[in-house]
Design goal:
The chain is α/β, with parallel strands linked by helices. The chain has a single domain, classed as 3-Layer(aba) Sandwich (Stationary-phase Survival Protein Sure Homolog, Chain: A). It contains six helices and eleven strands. Strands 3-4-2-1-5-6-7-11-8 form a nine-stranded mixed β-sheet, with helices on both faces. A two-stranded antiparallel sheet has the order 9-10. The chain is globular.
Length: 262
């Protein structure tokens, strides 16, 4: 298990003033000597790996090693690693604590996970961390605070040459009700569709709100991250940047080859 870290970078997708980020700062100070926070000015949930390319990105210093960025979580990782911290890169990037689980289908849209994946692109080890909760109850942040330090130490102690980051979800229970830790994976079915709500502004111009319809009960795979949370376990998923579907490669190759001119 790796000893205390020298320097870590924190970001999130809920914004610089989010409660989850404040709790993650406390955790980071338990495992590292120096903590940097570079986070979005506003909520960027659903931004995935998005990077701002068509307008300037602003960066405001709010305190010692604390910055707000007018962009996405991925923008924050790029700003930190390629500019603010370029002379002394972090040993680890922590993204979170997200307000709500990032599991199965929703992982593809998560800005929390997107920041960790962007760190991977930048050559930095990263962990995305999310705290599940049952609305209207508030997130049990103390569950993530209690269990995160040990998990972070163990994950950082693994071989860093592997091109993976980790997605960690804490169950919506009290710290002493956690039933353990388990390795899990994404599964299809947690997003049941999308909703478009049409409205009209004060100048009679139409505008729209988008939202996903979530239905986690549709996920039944026992090895899934959703199943892990149902068992009150902390779910840990290794993620990489490759999205190759190897199970149909032979069938696809035969089909493509059959259509080629002789």
């Amino acid at each position: 298990m790796k000893e205390r870290l020298r320097r870590v970078l924190l970001t999130n997708d809920d914004g610089i003033d989010a409660d989850g980020l404040a709790h993650l700062v406390w955790v980071a100070e338990e495992v590292a000597d120096e903590v940097w926070v570079v986070a979005p000015e506003q909520d960027q949930s659903g931004s995935s790996h998005s990077v701002t390319l068509h307008k300037p990105v602003r960066c405001r210093q709010l305190g010692e090693r604390r910055f707000a960025v007018s962009g996405t979580p991925s923008d924050c990782v790029i700003m930190a690693s390629q500019h603010l911290m370029q002379d002394a890169l972090p040993d680890l990037v922590l993204s979170g604590f997200n307000r709500g689980a990032n599991v199965s289908d929703s992982v593809a849209y998560s800005g929390t996970v997107g920041a960790a994946m962007t760190a991977l692109v930048m050559g930095l080890p990263a962990i995305a961390l999310s705290q599940a909760f049952r609305s209207p109850e508030p997130p049990p942040w103390h569950t993530a605070r209690t269990h995160a330090p040990e998990i972070i130490r163990r994950l950082v102690g693994m071989d860093q040459d592997r091109a993976v980051c980790f997605n960690v979800n804490f169950p919506a229970v009290e710290p002493d009700a956690v039933e353990g830790r388990t390795v899990c994976r994404q599964a299809r079915g947690s997003i049941a569709g999308a909703r478009v709500e049409a409205r009209v502004d004060t100048r009679d111009k139409p505008y729209y709100w988008f939202a996903f319809r979530h239905e986690s009960s549709a996920v039944t795979a026992p090895e899934s991250d959703v199943a892990a949370l149902r068992r009150n376990c902390i779910g840990i998923s290794p993620l990489n940047l490759e999205r190759n579907e190897t199970t149909i490669e032979a069938e696809l190759a035969a089909m493509v080859d059959a259509d080629l001119p002789r």
